[in-house]
Amino acid sequence: MLTLAGNLHIYWPLDDDVTNASLEALFYPGRNKDNEERLMPDYPKIHRELAKKGVTLTLLWTEYCLEASAAGKKPYMSTQFNDNYHKWARITKATMRIQHKPGDEMEVDWAGATIDIYDEVTGEISPAYLFVAVLSCSLYVYAELCPNMKSDTFINCHVHAYTYFGGSTRLLIPDNLKAGITRNTLYDTLIPRAYKEMADHYNTAIVPARVKHPDDKPNAEGSVKYATTWILAALRNYHFFSIEEAKTAVSEKLEELNLRPFKKRLGNRRSAFEDEEREFMLPLPKAPYEPAVWSTAKVQNDYLISDGINK
């Protein structure tokens, strides 16, 4: 290298206007020409295509070769093509965005903190609970304040989340809470009938997180913390005298949360959803799911049974 530099009359120290690119052109004059003859891959497009079901880098490289041939240019070899993509993804912080296919998963959980609802007459305080759903790809969040965490409330929150997102996902990942999972062991998973019917109605499969494995739903865990800060903590100094009043305030904070800019990449949760995930959501059924209540009854001697509803 020193001999080559001497032959080219390149000596240290270099002038201030000498760049790495100009040095590369002097030392390797044929390299730039070779690069000009190659078709530069469209890495943002490759990244978007990888998010689609069944798409791999091998398939995209094959399509890239055909595109290069049609343009009369040379393609990169597959190894260099893959390496260059991974370098691009690493530099642009894009790798975190293709770990989950768009429209593939919705993670759900309850926040640990609550909001106090004050009775105007007695001053009695009742807790209200925050349901959180998040799409694993775009991290788009839905949150709803509820008076309880009963099974029918839990299921209705899913219905409202799907309506908010404008579609459903292939998989639904809840925690092992009693409202959603009756039993979850290594050999057996038992899901309440109404919850399973709701999932079937939206053409989604319930895959509960393993017991004591929060990493099975990291986005829900992170979004619950995020919602706790930007919704519950942000409303800590407010006094609500009705659940409806508190729900309205939570809805307003939810929109602010989804519009907060990302720290490590451009955009926000709303823009990421609109640009990367909305088109991949499963279509909603014609009518939303209506929770059913299941019970058993003993037939009496007069062959009559009661439906348990007070007239």
Automatic annotation (TrEMBL):
SUPFAM superfamilies: Ribonuclease H-like. One of its GO terms (biological process) is DNA integration. It comes from the Bacteria. GO terms for molecular function: nucleic acid binding. Residues 98-278 form the Integrase catalytic domain. NCBIfam families: transpos_IS21 (NF033546). This is Integrase catalytic domain-containing protein. It comes from Mediterraneibacter butyricigenes.
